[in-house]
Amino acid sequence: MSLHENRTLRLTPCFRQLQVLRSERLTPHMQRIVVGGAELEGFESPGPDDHVKLFFPNAQGAFVLPELTAQGPRYPDGLVPSPSRDYTPRLHNAAAGELVLDFVLHGHGVASGWALRAQPGDALVVAGPRGSYQVADDYDAYVLIGDETALPAIARRLAELPEHAQAEVLVEIPEEADRQPLPSAVQVRVSWLERNGVDAASSTLLEDALVDFEVPDGDAYYWIALESRRARAMRQFFTGHLQVPADWIRATGYWKAHPGDAD
Description:
Blueprint: E1 7-10, E2 15-27, E3 30-36, E4 52-55, E5 67-69, E6 72-74, E7 84-87, E8 89-93, E9 98-104, H1 110-117, E10 123-127, E11 131-134, E12 141-147, H2 151-160, E13 166-173, E14 187-194, H3 205-210, E15 220-227, H4 228-241, E16 249-255
Parallel strand pairs: 12-13, 12-15, 13-14, 15-16
Antiparallel strand pairs: 1-11, 2-3, 2-10, 3-9, 4-7, 4-10, 5-6, 8-9
């Protein structure tokens, strides 16, 4: 059996004020924003599911950023902090000086509202990543499960898989028009599951699809990202029902189904 040594890289985060270069609607529920600028120099995102923190202008149109301290981020007294959200870098092209960010559009929230209005020249502050989870490249198969919020990370993972691997992908999306190309050099089987009006938090499309799930031959790594409660339940399904080793699974809640959640 291979060792499957997954590991975490620690990176030094910094704040980079970048500018919108262009904006493009990918699907009915996904907006692509490409940012760049001199401060992008030195940026790195070595892992497909890395997270950066995006800071948006506050209500006064200003960027009020935290100081990173040993006790956590500390904002200046008396000023309204810039709202922030976590996102996965979809693509970093160092040669072109571009960072691609894909935003899910759901009709409300700071991030999706900003993405809908973004015009070339608009400013955005990007911080991080603070760390990068490195998945071993010696698994026989990679199982990727998520909703539309996971598509940037899924697309990156498929593009970076080792040539010997195969991949099984299950993606839940709002409607058929939200399907995206997922190019990869390896053998990939993709199952698109469309909610067609069903609420993302109460949907069970992915759970239903897993009832008859066939475990891939050999050793498989499982990556899961969607609403927090559902992600936890799926992790328990794989570890308990299918007896997958816990360290072969990475399950992350990308959002939470209650008021006040980040988008």
